[in-house]
Design goal:
Layout: E1 2-6, E2 9-13, E3 17-22, H1 28-31, H2 35-51, E4 55-58, H3 65-77, E5 82-87, H4 93-100, E6 107-111, H5 119-132, E7 138-141, H6 147-166, E8 170-174, H7 188-195, E9 198-202, H8 205-214, H9 218-230, E10 233-234, H10 243-263, E11 267-270, H11 275-279, H12 284-291, E12 294-295, E13 298-299, E14 305-307, H13 311-324, E15 329-337, E16 342-346, H14 362-366, E17 370-373, E18 383-386, E19 392-402, E20 405-415, H15 420-430, E21 436-441, H16 445-451, E22 456-461, H17 465-475, E23 478-481
Parallel strand pairs: 3-4, 3-5, 5-6, 6-7, 8-9, 8-11, 10-17, 11-14, 20-23
Antiparallel strand pairs: 1-2, 12-13, 15-16, 15-22, 16-21, 17-18, 19-20, 19-22, 20-21
Helix pairs in contact: 3-4, 4-5, 6-13, 6-17, 8-10, 9-10, 10-12
Length: about 475
């Protein structure tokens, strides 16, 4: 993942790194006259992928077992996250088997369109040989200039990137299971085995302790003033939301940032309920601005943070972040308005303010944000980060486990805005101090409610179903597209 500064605004760009091995005939008299033909097909593939934002590493043409091994090792050393086995002419299947022992997986077998040569024969022969030794792969056939073919290959690359990006990360877990939500707790051994992610536990008291120290620092007051100048309104009520409680929420954010930095957490989750929400202050400000691409001090890379310490929520969000390079939604599946066929996705303040205007510029988003007092659920008080999600096509998903095996429910949707008066009425009927995302689902509400596996749902703007399915194939997760 690379970070780009554009006019003072943080922009994330995810760039998969993919290797290409092009296979040839094992007979020198047949290989030599086809070298240029093979390279021409490889160049077309490489250029199309680079134009789509993929970092590509190519090896020498593979026409011996020795080259299959050495070129596979070369791609591994170059940090490739997956390998495309490329076929345009007849190639000995044994080379694909040998390369699979050394090249970085997952693997995609790409069959070029070259009717004068048996390239398709090569793909099928290599596929059968890989099947015999238990190597998983995907197949794509066609002209890489065809948009549908390119989409399939790029989706493979991005899904591989998301799986590779998880490996070696550490999840910071503040607290434990919150208010009895079983689906928020995941086995750490399974995370290590299946995704290569470690989990480190931190007591919530560390947030309290450090926040009290941060309250003495001038940055907290400056951040409060920044918020008051940027958001549409701060609804101080003298009880649940006071200037001091807002500063304590800001201090909590700084405390979490310190811990994340010191312990090298890639993503995190905060239990909050009931200890913080009853006896300290809510974590909504911290959670929103961790997930945002900016805070009171300027641009920063979003740090995925799930409320209620929901581990599978955070894992789903981290996959989305590695795919889309944007903040990721966390929401409760709160209410369905049957008369307009709209699902209301709501949470106490965990929504990043990015969703208020779908912008990386805080000025654009915060102009639509209000800080409102927390209600009876959270007697300790603090601000909820209220706004309505900006409209646009979205992809929604949730990782969960059934009988110990991971699956991912995936579906398309669209965030919509309603007539202002109607929208205000519906917000008031549900929860007028928490953020909302009014959502049209691509599937029926009955299909959704009968199948969706948790109370929390996550998503990003855009179409990412194919990439999520590719991620699932690469990590042994069952994809379930609603």
């Amino acid at each position: 993942m690379t970070n780009i500064q554009r006019k003072g605004v943080f922009v994330m760009a995810t760039k998969p790194r993919i290797g290409i091995l092009t296979f040839s005939d094992g007979r020198e008299y047949a290989h030599a006259p086809q070298i240029q033909e093979n390279k021409t097909f490889e160049t077309r593939l490489r250029r199309a992928l680079e134009a789509a934002g993929i970092d590509v590493v190519t090896g020498e043409l593979v026409w011996t077992n020795e080259l299959a091994a050495s070129e596979g090792k070369k791609l591994q050393a170059a940090g490739c996250e997956a390998t495309i086995f490329n076929y345009a002419v007849w190639a000995f299947p044994q080379f694909s088997v040998m390369a699979s022992r050394f090249a970085p997986g997952p693997f995609l077998l790409f069959g070029q369109v070259n009717p004068s040569k048996p390239g398709m024969v090569s793909v099928l022969a290599a596929a059968g040989a890989l099947d015999q030794i238990g190597v998983a792969y995907r197949r794509v056939f066609g002209e890489i200039e065809n948009p549908e073919v390119l989409r399939q290959v790029v989706s493979f690359a991005r899904g591989a990137h998301a799986a590779a990006a998880l490996r070696g990360e550490t999840f910071g877990l503040f607290g434990g299971r919150s208010i009895g939500i079983n689906t928020a707790v995941a086995p750490t051994d399974l995370w290590a085995k299946q995704f290569g992610v470690d989990v480190e536990h931190v007591d919530q008291w560390e947030i309290v302790r450090r926040a009290e120290e941060w309250m003495k620092k001038p940055e907290v007051l400056a951040a409060q003033q920044w918020l008051e100048s940027k958001v549409r309104k701060v609804h101080y009520d003298g009880q649940q939301l006071t200037p001091e409680k807002l500063r304590l929420q800001i201090a909590s954010y700084y405390a979490v940032r310190d811990i994340v930095r010191e312990r090298h957490f890639a993503f995190t989750g905060i239990k909050a309920q009931p200890e913080l929400t009853e006896h300290f202050v809510t974590a909504d400000i911290a959670e929103a601005f961790l997930n945002d691409p900016y805070d009171f001090d300027g641009p920063h890379e979003p740090i995925v943070c799930s409320t209620e310490a929901d581990m599978d929520a955070a894992l789903t969000m981290e996959v989305f972040k590695h795919l889309a390079g944007t903040p990721v939604l966390f929401a409760d599946v709160r209410h369905y308005f049957a008369d307009i066929d709209v699902l209301d996705l709501v949470n106490s303040g965990e929504h990043a303010t990015y969703f208020a205007a779908r912008s990386f510029d805080p000025d654009e988003n915060l102009a639509h944000v209000e800080l409102k007092p927390q209600g009876f659920y959270f007697p300790a008080g603090g601000a909820a980060v209220f706004h309505i999600a900006a409209p646009g096509e979205v992809t929604l998903a949730r990782m969960s486990r059934k009988d110990g095996r991971y699956r991912m429910h995936i579906l398309k949707g669209e965030f919509v805005r309603l007539d202002p008066d109607d929208e205000a009425r519906r917000v008031a009927s549900v929860q007028d101090n928490w953020p909302h995302a009014f959502t049209k689902l691509a599937c029926s509400i009955d299909t959704f409610l009968q199948n969706f596996p948790a109370n929390h749902i996550h998503g990003v703007y855009g179409q990412w179903i194919d990439e999520l399915v590719a991620f699932c194939h690469n990590t042994g997760v069952e994809p379930i597209v609603l």
